[in-house]
Automatic annotation (TrEMBL):
InterPro entries: Globin, Globin-like_sf, Globin/Proto
Family membership noted in the UniProt record: Belongs to the globin family.
Gene designation per UniProt: vhb
Ranges for domain Globin: 1-135
Keywords carried by this UniProt record: Heme, Iron, Metal-binding, Oxygen transport, Transport
Record protein name field: Bacterial hemoglobin
Species: Pseudoprimorskyibacter insulae
Length: 157
């Protein structure tokens, strides 16, 4: 994720903020339609409150993209917490796809191929970090990092 991609993400998210409640509704409607297996995770949730949490979390991540050392530990803790709700590793793919479709609907013509690519890179990177924290496997824990090397998600440092 380069500086230009971070700027694209932050600028596009700024356009979503004024419609954040609608965006959250679109996101969850899309997620439940395309990945109905995740709906039970939210059986006892107040979806308006859940939507607010989603948008607040996205805001923290988007605003922290230039300082990933601060947001990565928070994302890892969030991922581990979500295991208790029954979230599976493959659910991250469904969430990512719904996020992109939500952004496409919410941003319209402003959802350019470059914006889509930036969001895809950011989400894929963060989801990888989160899945690594939530579902550690010995062979995956060290994948991409030779002894003394940085883990893959530290590519920006």
């Amino acid at each position: 994720m380069d500086d230009k991609q971070i700027t694209l993400i932050q600028e596009s998210f700024a356009k979503v903020v004024p419609i954040k409640d609608a965006a959250a509704e679109i996101f969850y409607a899309d997620l439940f339609e395309t990945a109905p297996a995740v709906k039970p995770y939210f059986a006892n949730a107040d979806m308006k409150d859940q939507g607010s949490k989603l948008m607040a979390t996205l805001a923290v991540v988007v605003n922290g993209l230039r300082d990933l050392d601060k947001i990565v530990p928070v994302a890892q803790q969030l991922a581990v917490k979500h295991v208790d709700y029954g979230v599976k590793a493959q659910d991250y793919d469904s969430v990512g796809a719904s996020l992109l479709r939500t952004l496409e609907k919410g941003l319209g013509d402003d959802f350019t191929p470059e914006v889509k690519e930036a969001w895809t890179v950011a989400y894929t990177t963060l989801a990888g970090v989160m899945k690594g924290a939530a579902y550690p496997e010995p062979e995956l824990a060290t994948a991409g990092a030779a002894p003394g090397k940085k883990p893959f998600w530290k590519f920006w440092a």
